[in-house]
């Protein structure tokens, strides 16, 4: 999604207040943005805490800063700077973490982002954007650009080969009809799930909803149509490349319980961390954690039979 | 400058008394570091800064001195000061955001204000916005790694519209800076990053003003005394924390006014 991200930001380069800070990352990807922004493209070096605080100071002066790094270096290393300098001061800094979930694969655990939006949602004022498809990046970037409060954009790798038939971008989108329960998916893993489910009969596949935005001032409301479908469903599944703790599975079920909605039999496909202590590609980690397409669909099918 | 030396001394004396009263009334500690930082903030606000300039208090635990500096400029009232540390206040023990134009950012956790001030200065340089940014740090604060990250960044971008002041009182939370994690010679260390460093008497208001006005983009190492002006507090670590008893407060007032009655003149 880096190409879509870069293109979308280049389109915004005419905004005088727009500044971009990178923690020395973006080689072979962000050069067009560097050219478009000139001195407003700032390589802050390998110093993420300073980068986030500098961005907060720039926002305080009326700039529209974006801060970019590999996801864990963006939200984990400078967490106190995000909490104190951005969120307590309610400054519109746009954080961008590249490589959500296990996207950095065999680069190792330090480069994975399994708890990013859970941690950031606890700060309450940040709105989270998790594009599921390459075509989501542009609309998400434009929405984030217009925000006057903090944002976090979690980028991954586009997985759906043909995005032409997708409905237009929305925080909640139904991307496939189905009669065997409701499945809510967060992130690019939606691409593989959608391709697989399209090959199943309507009666034997869940309705698939993709959730792309959550948190911030609007909290976690579910649209009426999603609530209706959940209430009529025999099964609810939530898929996310994120740990259970603070993830959207927890938040959505909490929302349903708090508002007195019926919760059907529930599957939460989420990251467990590193059960075997071994490392591999993103696909390998998904398999090990039971969040690959085969494990997900065999899991919900087994539940139906039971 | 719009204020002469005699007037400034009067302002400083009134401010010191008001700071002590505010802390005594609120039964709050942190008075030692406030007294060491007060003169720098008075100097900046009375002799250096214009309405275009911004001040960031990186050593947020000296919020009391900042409130008093703003009070001495008529930017806060006595009624405001009476709410210091009280329930429902905006004058918290460390500055909170969003309520006063002269407090641009919430601070309190050390090592944050300086990099934020660097960002403010960079934004002003990029946007050719007038005005300078001033930032006051403590000395113990330099044990935070983020300070050195900010120093590298500031030096690299050659931001001449930022002036950094360091309250070099030599005492921190649980010992002297020398004993806890020595950074001597801090000036040389900072200078080695390519930034101009000057040593200034941190209680000489006019000297601070001259150094700040004549040396854009510099670090001013302020030689200060924790608890400055109150003999039993000066250079005593415990006054990082202790609130004053009634007798201690009375004694402090006498020392500053030179009068048993506590009158200012």
List keywords for this structure.
heterodimer; A: 306 residues; alpha/beta; Rossmann fold; 2 domains; 5-stranded mixed beta sheet; 12 helices; 20% strand; B: 265 residues; 5-stranded parallel beta sheet; two-stranded antiparallel ribbon; 10 helices; 12% strand
What would you say about this model in short?
The complex is a heterodimer of chains A (306) and B (265). Chain A is of the alpha/beta class.
Chain-wise SSE layout:
The complex is a heterodimer of chains A (306) and B (265).
Chain A: H1 2-11, E1 18-22, H2 31-37, E2 41-43, H3 48-60, E3 64-70, H4 71-75, H5 79-88, E4 94-98, H6 116-121, E5 127-129, H7 134-146, E6 151-155, E7 172-176, E8 182-186, H8 189-198, E9 207-211, E10 213-215, H9 224-231, E11 236-243, H10 248-258, E12 266-271, H11 282-288, H12 293-305
Parallel strand pairs in A: 1-2, 1-3, 3-4, 4-6, 5-6, 8-9, 8-11, 11-12
Antiparallel strand pairs in A: 5-10, 7-9
Chain B: H1 5-26, H2 31-48, E1 54-57, H3 63-72, H4 78-81, H5 113-126, E2 133-138, H6 145-157, E3 162-168, E4 171-172, E5 175-176, H7 177-181, H8 186-191, E6 196-201, H9 205-214, E7 218-223, H10 246-257
Parallel strand pairs in B: 1-2, 2-3, 3-7, 6-7
Antiparallel strand pairs in B: 4-5
């Amino acid at each position: 999604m880096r190409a879509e991200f870069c293109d979308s930001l280049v389109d915004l380069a005419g905004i005088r207040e727009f500044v971009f800070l990178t923690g020395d990352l973006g080689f072979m990807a962000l050069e067009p943005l560097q050219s478009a922004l000139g001195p407003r493209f700032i390589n802050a070096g390998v110093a993420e805490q300073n980068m986030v605080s500098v961005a907060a100071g720039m926002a305080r002066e009326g700039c529209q800063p974006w801060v970019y790094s590999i996801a864990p270096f963006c939200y984990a290393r400078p967490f106190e700077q995000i909490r104190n300098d951005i969120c307590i001061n309610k400054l519109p800094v746009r954080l961008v973490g590249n490589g959500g979930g296990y996207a950095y694969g065999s680069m190792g655990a330090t480069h994975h982002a399994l708890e990013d939006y859970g941690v950031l949602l606890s700060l309450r004022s940040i709105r989270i954007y998790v594009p599921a498809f390459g075509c989501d990046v542009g609309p998400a970037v434009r929405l984030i650009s217009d925000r006057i409060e903090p944002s976090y954009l979690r980028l991954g790798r586009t997985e759906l080969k043909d995005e032409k038939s997708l409905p237009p971008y929305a925080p909640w989108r139904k991307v496939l009809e189905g009669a065997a329960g409701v499945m809510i998916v967060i992130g690019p893993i939606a691409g593989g799930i959608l391709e697989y489910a399209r090959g199943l009969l309507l009666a034997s596949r869940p309705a698939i909803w993709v959730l792309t935005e959550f948190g911030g001032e609007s909290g976690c409301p579910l649209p009426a149509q999603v609530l209706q479908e959940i209430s009529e469903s025999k099964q609810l599944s939530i898929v996310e490349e994120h740990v259970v703790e603070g993830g959207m599975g927890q938040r959505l079920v909490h929302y349903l319980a708090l508002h007195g909605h019926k919760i059907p039999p529930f599957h939460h496909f989420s990251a467990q961390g590193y059960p075997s202590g071994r490392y591999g590609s993103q696909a390998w980690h998904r398999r090990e954690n039971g969040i690959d397409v085969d494990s997900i669909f065999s899991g919900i099918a087994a539940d139906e039979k039971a | 400058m719009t204020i002469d030396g005699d007037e400034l001394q009067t302002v400083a004396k009134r401010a010191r008394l008001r700071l002590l009263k505010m802390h005594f009334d609120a039964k709050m500690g942190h008075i030692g570091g406030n007294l060491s930082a007060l003169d720098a903030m008075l100097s900046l606000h009375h002799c250096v800064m214009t309405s275009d300039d911004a001040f960031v208090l990186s050593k947020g635990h000296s919020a009391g001195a900042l409130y008093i500096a703003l009070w001495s400029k008529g930017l806060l009232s006595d009624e405001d000061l009476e709410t210091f540390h009280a329930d429902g206040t905006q004058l918290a023990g460390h500055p909170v955001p969003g309520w006063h134009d002269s407090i641009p950012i919430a601070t309190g956790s050390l090592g944050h204000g300086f990099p934020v001030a660097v960002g403010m200065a960079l934004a002003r340089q990029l946007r050719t916005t007038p005005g300078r940014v001033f930032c006051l740090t403590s000395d113990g604060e330099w044990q935070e790694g983020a300070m050195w990250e900010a120093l590298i960044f500031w030096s690299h971008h050659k931001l001449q519209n930022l002036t950094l002041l360091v309250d070099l009182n030599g005492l921190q939370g649980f010992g002297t800076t020398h004993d806890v994690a020595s950074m001597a010679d801090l000036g040389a260390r900072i200078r080695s990053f390519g930034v101009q460093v000057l040593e200034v008497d941190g209680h000489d208001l006019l000297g601070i003003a001259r150094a700040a006005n004549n040396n854009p983009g510099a670090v001013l190492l302020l030689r200060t005394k924790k608890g400055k002006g109150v003999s039993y507090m000066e250079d005593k670590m415990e006054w990082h924390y202790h609130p004053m008893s009634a007798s201690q407060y009375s004694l402090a007032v006498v020392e500053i006014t030179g009068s048993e009655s506590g009158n200012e003149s």
